[in-house]
Design goal:
The complex is a heterodimer.
Chain A (H helix, E strand, L loop, with lengths): L6 H17 L2 H6 L8 H9 L2 H5 L11 H13 L5 H16 L2 H6 L1 H5 L5 E4 L15 E5 L2 E8 L10 E7 L10 E7 L5 E7 L5 E13 L3 E2 L5 H12 L10 H13 L12 H29 L6 H24 L18 H12 L6 H11 L8
Parallel strand pairs in A: 1-4
Antiparallel strand pairs in A: 2-3, 3-7, 4-5, 5-8, 6-7
Chain B lengths: L6 H17 L2 H6 L7 H10 L17 H13 L6 H14 L6 H6 L4 E3 L8 E5 L7 E6 L2 E6 L16 E4 L4 E5 L1 H37 L3 E2 L2 E2 L4 H29 L5 H26 L11 H13 L4 H12 L7
Parallel strand pairs in B: 1-3
Antiparallel strand pairs in B: 2-5, 3-4, 4-6, 7-8
Helix pairs in contact in B: 1-4, 4-7, 5-7, 7-8, 7-9, 7-10, 8-9, 9-10, 9-11
Classes of the chains: A alpha+beta, B alpha+beta.
């Protein structure tokens, strides 16, 4: 095995680190504490470097950053705790549109997504369909030249600052559920759309979006009528490696070490010198190295043109489950003060330990729950029978 | 970056897989339970050149990198082979680096004689519970600032143990000092890291096989009229187990590469991989044993062999809690007083 990155990727790593040093200020990081997990200014600066377009595969007309270069960028941004959710969505949707979209969508959406001017929200999940995403009930019905959409989506995160939603709808109820789906890219300013906030126990805000006789032209359809599952598969394909989630723990570990080194217990000893604390820190650092192995493996597979599946599920499962464990440990080890909220006086390292504890549970849920990941691993890798 | 075996390595893996299939079947493992060592299998291994494969060419070794040794180590774990391959490899490399002209070297290169390493701190002129101590012709131990080599001990007696290992105390009385000083001790610690990294790889092979055994059982065992492998309770346990094992696969092989390349991260990655692989292998064996139901506890079924070795092999290094603290000191700052 050769674990070294090619020189171009290592040079790019240096460039990304310099970019982070310059632009990922404390203000950028704390801006997401207001609830909106996106920072326009930082996002635009990434776009201005050409890195959003760079991430789009070159055969689709993108900037041709290699899979290993992308892996390096995503790793560095995550290690630094940068807000990259909007970046991932922009890259994924631009790639899907370029591969499978019509000319109208390519011209209207892609340039604005890749220049960092606009955002799009994923509209897959519904009140009655989460993991069973193909059971979506939001209806799209053809009426003359137009489509009329009625229904509701959950977890349309960032929709309140986005211009579009990538909307999964049902267009056929007479066929098996996967075969009656159609995707649209819907401008959120269209009449009949209502966006309501969904506040979470993490600091972040999400949204529920309601669609009441929303009328759009056929030019906003992406993919074939009833061919929505192909779009879903394409989105998942481009999401691999781009969506992040491999390194959720390092910013928390760094913050805790800073706190533990400068904080004394009532008996005058430093928290960092406690052997129990040290063992847990090492366990956390080991988990991060395990995540690194998984992440580098998926980057390697992508660089070989391999369409990986189970490998991504294992990465996501391990990274999010270990992060949730770490967030619990670090809260304990920060003592009662660890409970203090972001920005509260006396909160350790500004309250980020509490913030991570409240954020961590969503990471084992969104983007495929741990249970779905385990199902996929059991079926795909171990050949055990499908249970759903 | 290339994270699979290359074609040469795959060929080596094929050759040794055939070797272990014929010389380390589970029946042979069982026959060797009381000695922890299969003499005949070792003699066959000697014929393959494996004992000297990672020793330098100028002393007659194969000159292969540590990463090639890892291919064999993975199979040692998969077959829970009763062979001191890892101990011999790292102890011989240590002696070769300190005393390349030592009389023992030719016999260690060939594998005619077996070397091992004392992993526990020595006390009262004794190396306690030496891995392979009951069968090794030569044991290297660190005594203060000296590295000593004990051989020709006639009073060795195997101590029966959890994992059917050939453990024994070795007397260091009259042991020959082969090197002294900081650099020599550093070499000794480097050998310990190599042992950890290769053991981590072996535990990965062991854990993977433990999951395979359990999954195979779950695909043939019926309860409540259905295959037990169709229950999500089992599926999720297996999925978590194999995820840990795969994580340990990448981390342990990365540790071996780091040592091979003399990376600054080698020592800590070896320790980290070792600690992680130890838990992943035990978790995998424990899940697999559990899903066998009562049969898992029966001697007749193979999974118990894996469960006991998953715990016993790494514990030859000592309490993992102590190792966590050592790694902490490599990675973490201390408080302001220190």
């Amino acid at each position: 095995m050769d674990w070294s990155f090619p020189p171009a990727a290592e040079e790019f790593r240096t460039e990304v680190r310099a970019f982070i040093d310059e632009h990922l200020t404390d203000d950028v990081i704390s801006s997401t504490h207001q609830g909106t997990i996106h920072n326009w200014d930082f996002h635009k600066k990434i776009a201005d470097r050409g890195w959003l377009g760079g991430a789009v595969p070159s055969e689709l007309g993108g900037g041709g950053k290699s899979a290993l270069e992308m892996a390096v960028m995503i790793e560095e941004l995550q290690l630094a705790g940068a807000p990259i959710d909007g970046m991932g969505v922009a890259i994924v949707v631009a790639s899907v549109v370029l591969e499978l979209g019509n000319d109208h969508l390519k011209e209207t959406i892609v340039p604005k997504l890749l220049s960092g001017e606009t955002l799009i929200s994923f509209g897959y999940t519904e009140p009655d369909s989460g993991s069973d995403v193909a059971a979506a009930q939001t209806r799209a019905v053809k009426d003359g030249e137009e489509w009329v959409i009625n229904g509701q989506k959950m977890w349309t995160t960032m929709a309140h600052i986005a211009d579009y939603v990538l909307l999964l709808t049902r267009t056929n109820t007479d066929v098996p559920k996967h075969k009656g789906l159609t995707f649209f890219i819907v401008p959120l300013e269209t009449s009949g759309i209502e966006i309501q906030p969904v506040h979470t126990m993490g600091t972040e805000r999400s949204n529920a979006t309601f669609y009441d006789d929303v009328r759009i032209g056929d030019e906003w359809r992406i993919g074939d009528i009833d061919g929505g599952w192909e779009i879903m598969k394409a989105a998942l394909k481009y999401e691999r490696g781009i969506a992040g989630g491999q390194f959720p723990s390092p910013p928390l570990i760094d913050a805790f070490i800073e706190h533990a080194q400068k904080t004394e217990r009532p008996d005058g000893s430093s928290i960092i010198d406690d052997p129990v604390v040290r063992e847990r820190l090492v366990r956390s650092l080991i988990d991060v190295e395990v995540c690194r192995g998984f992440a580098y493996n998926t980057a390697f597979l992508a660089s070989e043109g391999v369409m990986f599946g189970v490998e991504g599920s294992m990465t996501k499962l391990f990274a999010s489950e270990s992060y949730k464990k770490h967030s619990k440990w670090f809260l304990d080890m920060a003592g009662t003060e660890g409970l203090l909220y972001l920005g509260e006086e006396g909160a350790p390292v500004g309250g980020v330990i509490d913030e991570h504890f409240r954020h961590a549970p969503v990471t084992t849920i969104y983007g495929g729950t741990s249970e779905i990941s385990r199902n996929l691993i059991a079926e795909g890798l171990l050949g055990l029978p499908r249970t759903r | 970056m290339y994270l699979r075996l290359n074609s040469d390595e795959l060929a080596i893996q094929d050759i040794f897989r055939s070797f272990f299939e014929s010389e380390c079947s589970i029946e042979r493992v069982r026959t060797s339970q009381h000695t922890g060592f299969d003499t005949e299998a070792w003699e066959r291994l000697v014929e393959t050149g494996a004992p000297g494969m990672c020793l330098p060419e100028h002393i007659g070794g194969g000159g292969a990198p540590l990463t090639t040794g890892a291919i064999v180590a993975d199979l040692v774990g998969e077959f829970v082979a009763p062979l001191p391959f890892i101990e011999h490899l790292v102890a011989s490399r240590l002696l070769a680096s300190l005393a390349p002209d030592h009389d023992l070297i030719p016999a260690l290169v060939s594998g005619e004689k077996i070397a091992s390493l004392a992993l526990q701190p020595t006390e009262d002129d004794q190396a306690k519970l030496v891995p392979g101590g009951a069968i090794a012709d030569a044991v290297i131990a660190c005594k203060g600032n000296d590295l000593v080599l004990a051989s020709g001990d006639d009073s060795i007696s195997l101590l029966r143990n959890t994992a059917d290992l050939p453990l024994a105390h070795r007397s260091l009385n009259g042991a020959e000092t082969i090197a002294s000083g900081g650099a020599a001790v550093e070499r000794f610690f480097r050998a310990r890291s190599e042992w950890q990294a290769l053991m981590a790889v072996a535990l990965t092979g062991l854990g993977r096989k433990a999951v395979d055994i359990g999954v195979a059982y779950a695909k043939e065992r019926y309860q409540f009229g259905v295959l037990i492998g169709s229950f999500q309770g089992l599926q999720h346990g297996f999925a978590s187990a194999i995820t840990g094992v795969e994580g340990s696969h990448f981390l342990s092989n990365r540790a071996v590469s780091a040592l091979e390349n003399d990376s600054d991260l080698g020592e800590r990655l070896a320790g980290m991989a070792f600690l992680f692989a130890s838990e992943a292998a035990l978790d995998a064996s424990a899940a697999s044993l559990q899903y066998h139901g009562g049969y898992g506890f029966a001697e007749e079924y193979d999974i118990q062999l894996y469960y006991r070795r998953a715990k016993g092999w790494p514990l030859q290094f000592g309490d993992p809690g102590v190792e966590y603290q050592r790694i902490a000191n490599l990675c973490l700052p201390s408080g302001k007083v220190a």
